[in-house]
Give the backbone structure.
Amino acid sequence: MAHRNINMATVRTVPHMTRMSRRMTRRRTLTGLGVAGAALALAGCAQDAPQDTWQPKGDNAQMIHDLQWPVFLIAGIVGVIVIAVIAYVIVRYRDTGQPMPEQTHGKPALEITLTILPALILVGVGIPTVTTIFELAETDDTECIINVTGQQWWWEYDYPAQDGCGGISAPIVTSGQLVMPADTNVLLRLTSRDVIHSFWIPALNGKKDTVPGRVHLLRMHANEPGIYAGQCTEFCGLSHANMKMEAVALSAEDFETWKANQLEAYTPPEAGSLAALGEQAYIANCAYCHQVNGLSTTAPDGTVTPVLANPDQFVVSGAAPNLTHLMTRNTFAGATWDLLTPECRERVWNAPPEEFGALYLQGVTPECLNQVDLREWIRNAPAKKPMYALPSQAANSGGLVRGMPALGLNETQIDQIIAYLLERN
Amino acid sequence: MAIIERPTDPAPVPAVAGSGAPAVVTPSQAYGVLRRPVSSTGWRSWVFTVDHKKLGIMYGVVAMFFFIMGGIEALLIRLQLAGPEGTVLSAGLYNEMFTMHATTMVFLFVMPMAAAFANYLIPLQIGARDVAFPRINAFGFWCFLAGGLFLNTSWFLGGAADGGWFMYQPNASPLYSPTNGVDFWALGLQITGIASLTGAINLIVTILNMRAPGMTLMKMPIFTWMILVVQFLLLFAMPVITVALFLLMFQRSFGATFFDVAAGADPLLWQHLFWIFGHPEVYIIVLPGFAIVSEVLPVFSRKPLFGYRFVVFSGAAIGFVGWGVWAHHMFASGLGPVSVAVFSVATMLIAIPTGVKIVNWTLTMWGGKIQFTTAMLFAVGLVVSFTIGGLSGVTHAVAPSDTQQTDTYYIVAHFHYTIFGGAVLGLFAGFYYWWPKAFGKLLNEKLGKWNFWLMMIGMNMTFGPMHIIGLQGQPRRMMNWTEARAGEGFFNLGFWNRVASVGSFILAIGVFLFLVNIWYTHRAKSNTPKAPLDPWDARTLEWITQSPPKEHNFDKVPTVHALDEFFHRKYEVDHETGEVRKVATAEEILAAEEAQGDKHIHLPSPSYWPIILAFALPVMAYGVIYNRLLIVVGGLIVLLAMFGWALEPSVADDSDYDPPAEGGGTNKELATIG
Amino acid sequence: MAMWLFLGSECLLFGGLISTYMLYRGRHSAELGPDQIFDIPFTSVSSFVLLMSSLTMVLAVSAAAQKDDRRTNLWLTITALLGATFVGGQVYEFTVMYREGLGFTTSLFSSSFYTLTGFHGVHVTVGIIMLMALVGINKRSRVPGDKAEVVEMVGLYWHFVDVVWIIIFTLVYLIPA
């Protein structure tokens, strides 16, 4: 009984279907063009957010982009077609007093076709996907190694001594801004000191989790000098929103300058200056956790003792940002705040590639220093950035805190410390 | 009204807890410590009930309560993100808020609301008088309530869980999450997990063993089919999360080091366990919505479901393939390229059976006679929204592309289009469609349409912009966003975040109208008439009985001859012309059935033990967190309740009731053991 | 059938626990690893006891099928006793290990070992409670429904727990890390 039903239905609806599909084809062309236009507009917009995922600025991100825009386009077209068909159906077949419709139970041929069609589209998408996955996983062609370590809630970068990166004679440790040579394949070795974080510079590559106890590899490449924003994207606790970073790409020449500056010996502040008082205040209040390479104390008898930070005793992750060359970076506290005033920041961020390197290498000059945020931070860090940094909160972690505690400094001490830090360039 | 009903007794079952004194009963025998509860009115008839319909309604009420809670949490999140540097919530509270929003919506709203529908409707749809294990059914409900309440007491006891609903390790270990929130989360979900597991076993047995005569598997209503798939997914997914939660509990409360990297552990173990559960869970959430619209669309198109077999098999296929795609939640977690490629392709595969469903729904409407009732509007809304959600899903099956999108708002947009657009809209279609069945009155259609359009507009305004926000690089789970990274121009984050926040309030008003509608329909002065027997011209068995159904569902279990049995009893199809003629009304069909009703129906009797057993579990859970002694106390209650349960026959003797039943052979419908 | 479904679900529970153990079996200090801590002859004996209890369970099921209440109760009790012996052995084994310094939190190996075998022990204990309850109800002639079916269901559970032990015993004790 049901069988005859199906046959009848098939016969009767065929001409009807043909008429439909002709109309559909026309609609498809139009909507397809519409979506393509929208996609182009999306890709072409210049002043978009700095973490826009549709503006690749390096080979890896470009590879992803080349794969993703056609997929988005296909998905968009399919979506418009399906929704258009639904719209057509609910208008055309709304109840206008027509008799009860035929009780068609299905048309296997049509259903199989409509199953195979998406399967074919997916095969078309699947093949380039798989090849791109393997291309992106390639790391043999990298020429420069940088270790990236995530911790609550900032990033540390260390450059091991190597022949790569144009040769590095002694390790360089920095944080917040990842400085790398432009137009070079850089290998990031990612890990974490506490919980899982994720390293993501959308303009340069997709994200990769940093997992404690594991080292993950990520290849980075920037076409041109410039500054590229990123953010930790694996939920990592209280201040996850304040764990940002930038990648800074410099020309080969500028990168050499940067390296040389990073390895420069320590120059103590001029005796009697505000910065010299700041050095004392720094040793008394900051140096427990924050290393400044080359910093030392001289006892009355003339013995020189290097001042070594020992963050293991205070912080859960056992690390705090190295401040030796703080003023060569232009953000601080997990790249959440700028060390530059808004005008100076604009200049650096919006610089064309050829001028960018010189501007970046100027670092933070006294005129450009963003006093407001830096003072607030030194005065009471946990009030500015939510952290687990009160002694009362350390009961469950063996007395260790997560993040920078409030140090209880007075305004004079803050002045001194800022004067001292301004010379860390 | 006695539990033992004879069809000649016309007294209807009250739709909501009625007033009136409990029936006077003299139990002939006490079982164990407690006398058996036998009242069938008043609060006792709800608290100790084993009736699948009452349990279904209670599931629905409690799930609705948690839906509102989760919704308020969502609104607070959107308030915080409406502008840059939001200060509505502190960082800690914000983290608790999104963790609990997700946990509540997934475990305490969508899953139990689906359980509400399944509980209420499955026995009715397959022509059974109750589920296979009514007491276990009651136990499941109370576990859900106990677990849900337990979980939410954490708000008042030092803070809720703050590790995200996925609770990645080691961020959720005591060192990084020192409040008891995560303990409450792990133990609370463990308890609600019991509800899911017992419910799954119960419903599978019910569906496979208790179908009406003549109802072969391929004549089973599509709703029942999809729910069957869901229960199998639950059956195998729950133990995996159980293991994960046990490991987490041992880690947090008993000093084990399963996720402690310093001890040599691998934090990815948690991710694998969680997502092996978590991905089937996605289908557990969304298939009930599919199940509902697969019933609603044919009814209001006046056509059978197009390609019933295809829909059944694609549902089963989703059930199977759903197990092989969990690692697509981990494309960025550092798996090797081979695993990534395999899971990427498997994820694309699952789009095919999902696409089949959309095609079949559309073709069901094609050539129909479509009536836009509120239920139908929600169903069409689901098809459209889920299409969008499904297609954005395909874009991140492309693993390299996913490494850009994962953990951004693009993902948030995607899964809200699938979960809200796929599951919640389906549930609302179900509310409007089956409301007259459960409560005897039709919800107001005018309010219903406002409800639908506000929800639909609100939903698209809230989650639509999140596609843009995500592609512009705003990560999820961020307590705030900053102007510095918001960009300018058409795609700037500020504008679209505001749109989303406004949308969320429109959505909330839409949901609120649903509550208004319930009040409007059932308020004391309401002039809403009693719903007709077959208000929608429906097609399935649950409509061949009174609305609301009597306690024993059917006076006579109907014999099934065809898929869409009820339709075929009402209509005759002319095979030559394809013309459809009405030959009988619902009233006539029901009268014919009731005329030959069974003389003596035994139903399982109420019991104290399920609720006692269920509420002993949070006692033990508090014990784990605060005082080991409480574990022992709770454990003793559990043991006692289990023995009491085992000693109590599932069907009380006739002599438990007043008046005692007349003699004669009993018609024992339900084999209830355990 | 409900029991079959439940056991299907249990398979994944033990699957998860066994996977955890397999992942962490090598993570221990040099002195307190599986090689030093396991007393294989002892565990073999207790495994044999558990295996025998499966046999007595079969006898109980067949007695129940023949509606022989006395023999059913007898075999059920023996099964419970054998099970109790196994659990007793496990408690003894844990005590010895603990004295040797292998606490629950000592290493990842110990945590996952105790969790896996402990979960199994709890399952055996639950089985014993079910057997005893069954004997109790049977004596008072209050078994709901078909008695043989109830005994068979409990038997099914018991055999499952045995089979799981065989797998655990092989993977944990016999195959060297």
